[in-house]
Structures are given as structure tokens and as C-alpha cells.
Amino acid sequence: MKSQEIEQYLAELGAALQSQGIKKPVRMLLIGGAYMMLLANAPRTTDDIDMFWVEEGEDFQKAHLAMRDGVQTIASKYTLPLNWFNYLTQILIYDKVIMPRGKLWRRYGPLYVYAPPREYMLALKIMAGRDKDIADCRILLSQTHVRTRRQAQRMLDRYILPDAQKDEAETIEYSLNVLFGSENEKEP
Question: Residues 14, 124, 165, CA angle at the centre, nearest 5°?
């Protein structure tokens, strides 16, 4: 997916929610490759749009069903895989991260898309540690005040829960070594 396609699909999803009678805001936090493209201006594409539900109020079930139907309709219309809109990522890492509030970035009818702080995205990317995540980290580092390994660790402590840091210690260590040098090297 390219940036303009992401925005088009989000706009159509918002319209689908509205046509299904959803009036209250459905708040979602944009993460992953779509965030990198739309908010960090990364020169890349993505296979899906990763989102976190910001809240799960009493209208959650109704919104969830309408969201599922809208996602399926758009997938059929554009021959996209059914996971093009990935809000299941949250299930995989909800117990590993501290969810930031984020700032409202765009509204597409009742679909409210929030952007987390860049430092949050950087923490998620360090924890993921794949080659594309390391490339994204380099972009995010230039857009944050994180300059040292120590600052990166403080940022991780703010957003990644201690047990998750233990479980993902090898990947986090790898990412930090690639980005800041090994722990044995002195920082200025």
C-alpha cells in the first residue's frame, strides 16, 4: 500500500461505519508501517494498516462488528487481503506495552485516527527488531530527541513493560547495539 491508498481506505472505512449507523467516535491509534509512511514520511510501502483500539466502551461490540463488515467490503472492492486493516496486533502486544493517549490526527466520519508520540513508535520498533524496523528506527531517531543508548532505554522503560523487556531482551539488545553500538562502548 502507498500513502494515498491508506488514506483512501481509511476514508472509505469511515464512510462504511457511518452508513452502518455508527455515530459515536471509533478511536484507533495508528502504528506500524502506515504510521511510518503517513507521519514519519518514511519512503516505503506497507502490506497493512496496524491499529490499536484506543477505548473499549459499551458501544465497542457494535463498532467492532461494523468495522469488520467495512473492512471485508473494502477488501473485496480492492482485492486486498482480509488483514489489510490489522487491529489484531493489539491482542499480540497489549500486555507488553503502555498505551499512550495519542493526538487526533484525522477524522473519517466516526473513525478517529490518533497518532502516538514518535518515541512510542521508536520503542515498538526497537522491540520488534526486524530489518525494516531498524530502518524505521533510523528515521524516527532523526525525528526525536533520543541520541544515546541510555536515552533509548529510558524511552523503552516509559512504554514497554518490564516483563516484556525481559521476554524481548535479545531483540531489544540487538536493536540497541545496531542503533547505538554495543553496551561495552562508552557513550559521550
Answer: 140
| Cell 490499536 found at | 52
* Partner residues linked to 30 by β-bridges: 51
Phi and psi, residue 182, nearest 5°: -70, 160
Percent of the chain with pLDDT over 90: 81
Grid cell in block for residue 71:
473492512
| Residue-wise pLDDT tens digits, 22-61 | 999 999 999 999 999 999 999 999 999 999 988 766 667 7
- CB count in 10 Å sphere of residue 111: 25
The values of phi and psi at residue 48, to 5°, are -155, 175
Tell me the whole-structure pTM to 2 decimals: 0.91
CA distance linking residue 89 with residue 97, whole number of Å: 12
- Going from the C-alpha of 134 to that of each of 88, 95, 103, the distances in angstroms are 23, 23, 25
CB 107 within 8 A of CB 150: no
- Contact in structure between 22 and 62 (CB atoms under 8 Å): yes
Nearest-angstrom CA–CA distance, 153 and 172: 10
